[in-house]
Amino acid sequence: MPTAIEVRGLTKQYGELVAVGGIDFEVPAGTVFAFLGPNGAGKTTTVEILEGLRRRTGGTVSILGLDPWTDGASLRRRVGVLPQEFRFFDKITAREAIEYYRTLFGTSVDPAELLARVELLDKAEARFDTLSGGQKQKLGLALALTNDPEICFLDEPTTGLDPHARRALWGVIRNLRSSGRTVFLTTHYLEEAELLADRVAILHRGRIIASGTPAEIVRSHGRPARLSVEAAPALAPLLVRDLGVSARAADGRVEVELADRHDALRVLAAIDRSGIPWDSFSTEVDTLEDVFVRLVGRMDEGTLKAEAPA
Amino acid sequence: MNGRRIGADLAVVYRTYTRNPIALFFSLIFPIILIGLFGLIFSTIGTGTTTLYVVNDDHGSPTSVAFLSALNNTTVVKVATVNVSAASFGAWLGDHDDPVGLVIPDGFGANYSAGHPVNVTVYTDPQDAASSGEVLGAVNGVVSQFNLEAACHGGTCTPVVGVLTSQVGSPSYSTIDYLIPGLIGFSILTSPMFSLVDISSTYRKEGIFRELSLTPLTRGEWLSARIVWYVLLTFVSAAIVIGFGAGVFSAHVKLNLGLVPFLVVGPFFFVSLGMLCGSVSKTPETAALIGNVLTFPMMFLSGTFFTVSSFPPGLQTVAHLLPLYYVIDGMNQVMLFSNTTRALTDLAIVLVASVVTFLLAVRLFRWRDE
Ligand SMILES: Nc1ncnc2c1ncn2[C@@H]1O[C@H](COP(=O)(O)OP(=O)(O)OP(=O)(O)O)[C@@H](O)[C@H]1O
Ligand SMILES: [Mg+2]
């Protein structure tokens, strides 16, 4: 598979502040790549460097084999961009905006069809300054698609969208992918990344702290699967003694780590045998979100410790 | 430069403009309000004593001084001695408002004392019969008085001083005539300047320029669309000002194709200048400040409301540094004086300034963060 985006040793400094501290990644063509990270991690900075809107401090960036800063003119027709805060001419309607872009790009999209695709057809004749936040976002997405781009950069495309609209956008992204387009998106919704992305990277203070497929990240950074049962705390030491598993009690529940699926049956049988009353139970595995929160939390703790005076 | 893209952008400008009634009001109606206002002011202060421009070639002889002070005492005219040659006086008057003049010839005093006939020349304005009549009456009155004194003094009773009349070389212009090119200049300056300073800085702040930078539209095309728009707007606004001035205040304007280049180059310059202000400023506030610093002196000192020739010399020098002066002066030359050479010079100056400013604006105008 050819590489759509290749980034090597990318750095960006704003004066003293290192917003991006040397990152590497590759996005194969035809895949969805999700960039995750807490506020201020450097996601927008990175995306805008890839789009050719910001000049990088160091490293190399190749978008479809071109340098976005110097070859912007030739890349423009091949990439689509939805910025984090999309703004447009206040007095222009959604339909007019698309017609405008259509002429600028010299393409022949049907505004109605494009607006229907992003579920904004009912607002085709509404002026930009009368659109709601989510509707503006949808128009931004429609404009990003007017030139039928090979790569779409979507910076927080679903922020501010209602649950229904978010699912519609997921549909758009899946369609892009199935028609061979590359999508680079940033998001704060981990389940979205898990659902859509072939690969994700978690950015923290300008550095990538984990990357891979969502499953790989959960496997290598997540905790083992757990069985959680509603029972008295006394159950925990009993299970530790009888089964040699690790278990702990909290909030009226006892949580037991499972080495594999079969462990669950063993543990349940032991609980039943113990004679301690118990109620509902469930098994739990880490989601990408759990991993994200733990990873970022640990990094922050680490940096806090490092920054604390000795 | 791609015409289709400029056209598409022009449609955006047109819609933005026409859907914002305040902006439309300012660029089209404001000059009319001004012309009404100034027309009223000038027609009220116009009815006072008439200024009589005098060339005294008798080098301040006691007789000529007495003659002029007698004229002043009539209170019909106010004598203003000017320093031009009698030969070019007619043309000189033609360049001024309300041109009535008087020439006292060399040897006036000596001839008068000796009882030799001598003539003064009155220049009248064929377009302004009322003040010409008043002036002629006043001069004839003073002349009779002098002749009477000469007759009694010399013993014989023949009139010594005669009055010749001459018409001012070129047709005369009233203040309202000057106001027409001035106000066209006013809209050429203000509409593009205020708007471009504003949008160039706010579009950048709001990220609209970054948005556009991701399309094939170039900065030159973007600026060109604005220039085309303001040229069109200037034509409409000039038509309104001319129509209103001629219809309501009977201004004399020669409609002349020579006006067209000024209506094109003027907006070209000020769109570029407004863009330049926005480009060199980091925030909309700074841009507005720089814009105002450039706009306001030009608004008053370029011959918009007051003719530059009526300024003190220092201020005239300042006026000659302002590009709008050449736009307005050029339009005056075309619309009033038919002075093609001077109009072409003015046009050349504005054109050079425009090209330089345009190139500078396109160069310094940043779509994205550098
Ligand atoms: N133009 C700028 N000048 C100076 N500092 C900047 C600039 N833009 C961003 N930064 C800083 O760079 C860091 C990264 O910002 P960036 O916008 O890339 O974060 P982000 O990951 O997109 O955050 P969010 O999730 O909140 O959108 C932040 O600390 C921010 O303050
Ligand atoms: Mg961001």
Task: Please give the structural blueprint.
The complex is a heterodimer of chains A (310) and B (370).
Chain A: E1 3-14, E2 17-28, E3 32-36, H1 43-51, E4 58-63, H2 72-75, E5 79-82, H3 94-105, H4 111-117, H5 133-145, E6 151-155, H6 163-178, E7 182-186, H7 190-196, E8 199-204, E9 207-212, H8 214-221, E10 226-231, H9 235-243, E11 247-250, E12 253-257, H10 261-274, E13 278-284, H11 288-307
Parallel strand pairs in A: 3-7, 3-8, 5-6, 6-7
Antiparallel strand pairs in A: 1-2, 1-4, 8-9, 10-12, 10-13, 11-12
Helix pairs in contact in A: 3-4, 9-10
Chain B: H1 3-18, H2 21-45, E1 50-56, H3 62-73, E2 77-81, H4 89-94, E3 101-104, H5 108-114, E4 118-124, H6 129-154, E5 161-167, H7 175-205, H8 208-213, H9 219-249, H10 259-280, H11 284-301, H12 313-319, H13 323-337, H14 340-364
Parallel strand pairs in B: 1-2, 1-3, 4-5
Antiparallel strand pairs in B: 3-4
Helix pairs in contact in B: 1-9, 2-7, 2-9, 7-9, 7-10, 7-11, 7-13, 9-10, 10-11, 10-13, 10-14, 13-14
Bound molecules: adenosine-5'-triphosphate and magnesium ion.
The site of adenosine-5'-triphosphate has 12 residues of chain A, from strand 2 and helix 1.
Give an account of the 3D structure.
The complex is a heterodimer of chains A (310) and B (370). Chain A has eleven helices and 13 strands. With 310 residues, chain A is of the alpha/beta class. Among the domains of chain A are: 147 residues, P-loop containing nucleotide triphosphate hydrolases (Rossmann fold), CATH 3.40.50; 61 residues, 2-Layer Sandwich (Alpha-Beta Plaits). Chain A has a six-stranded mixed β-sheet with strand order 5-6-7-3-8-9, with helices on both faces. In chain A, helix 6 links the parallel strand 6 and strand 7. In chain A, helix 9 packs across helix 10. The radius of gyration of chain A is 24 Å and the shape is elongated. The mean pLDDT of chain A is 90. With 370 residues, chain B is an alpha/beta fold. Chain B folds into two domains: 118 residues, abc type-2 transporter like domain (abc type-2 transporter like fold, 3-Layer(aba) Sandwich); 190 residues, no CATH class. Chain B contains 14 helices and five strands. Chain B has a five-stranded mixed β-sheet with strand order 2-1-3-4-5. In chain B, helix 10 runs parallel beside helix 14 and helix 13 runs antiparallel to helix 14. The model of chain B has no long low-confidence stretch (mean pLDDT 82). Chains A and B meet through helix 3 of A and helix 1 and helix 8 of B. The structure holds adenosine-5'-triphosphate (ATP) and magnesium ion. Magnesium ion binds next to helix 1 of chain A.
